[in-house]
Amino acid sequence: MAKFSGRGNQQTKVGAMTMRRRDFLRNLVITTGGISVGGSLLAACGGTSSSTTVDGLAIGTPENPIKLPVTTDAIADGMASESGTLEILNWADYANPESIAIFEKQFGCKVSTSIYDTEEAAIAKLRNGTFKPDLILGMTDTGLAKLVAADLLQPLNKSYIPNFGNVIKGLQNPYYDLGSQYTVPYFIYGNGIGYRADRIDKNAFAKNGYDMLWDAQYSGKLGVLDSYRDTLAMAMFRAGVKDANTSDAAIITKAGEDLISLREATNPKVDILAYTEMPAGNRDINFTWSGDLFTALQYLPEGVSPDVLGFWYPETTVAKNDFMCITKNAKSPVLAHQLINFLSDTDNAMLNREYVGYQPALESITVDLLISTGTIPESLIDALVTPEKYESGLAQVLLEPAVDALWLEQWTAFTAG
After folding, report:
1. CATH of domain 191-317+396-415
2. 56: burial class by Cβ within 10 Å (0-12, 13-18, 19+)?
3. Coil, helix or strand at residue 261
4. Does domain 8-188+319-378 have CATH number 3.90.190.20?
């Protein structure tokens, strides 16, 4: 396994994948009112948000977890693997081709991948039959609600997924799919602050690390996420609010005012480019997703030590995940289960992570394992989303339209300045 070397000539592909996925996340919060993410059932979310539905199906929240309806039986135990081709639907470059080749050889099959650029477009094409995959990778819980409402998924038979036990405990029974009837988590990440460790001492984050984003000495050398839910919530967390979904107009307004003061103090870049701008040395500090720091390792100039990158993971922050699920009319449902199981194996997940960059949602992939195998530098230990961090992370859920409008109003005031 290469140490911090990226993927050689795959680097351009990684950039393309990251931009497509980040663009989707940014667009999703604009068009639907929030990123559907998850901590465990234990995740504290505040309790001020109200129930939301998608196509008539309620979306679970940590306060109101949901048992999804089931309209068909799972496949029977002990069935033989299908021959031929396993069709999967995935984001671009969101699975390691080397991992897929190993799976093909092991199971004597071929894997064909269709690519989607937005969750909405993928679901529309699944509904009209343009996409007919066996397995879907990378969906979120909003997508899950829409897929289940359209009766497009089949429940899992976990006898084919013995590696489900590797999944972090907080996601073995997620609020959006109690009992994991339809889903097995794929990747996890959290929000925090990336920084150039060769320019900023980690002890500077000791008191309230969020304050660093308001420090005028970083004017012109600082960035925040182009995501209104993430960045407004960050301002709330700095002020001591522990609710990523608040409907309190006073709290939302105060967060907007605080972001304007951040703008005046530091003139931040508002984008999703921390993973390229920080390794290039163009920024000293950036509010971003933890996974972007691992991706950033691949963009360091030749000869630059990976130790120049650091990450502060706040005690109060948002934790997120996506997952894998099988379509109701899958032609190769056994193979689909087996690929889920394959990607949930520790060694296979490590190889897959080497290409994708993000962190598999497995308890077996520990800090010690990632350090001892040379997968990440010690300077980025804090960017890892441990099971404990994940379970204490806050969840974001869809907001009611009137509440969402309040968030967007404050975000517009911040970005228009």
Report:
1. 3.40.190.10
2. exposed
3. helix
4. no
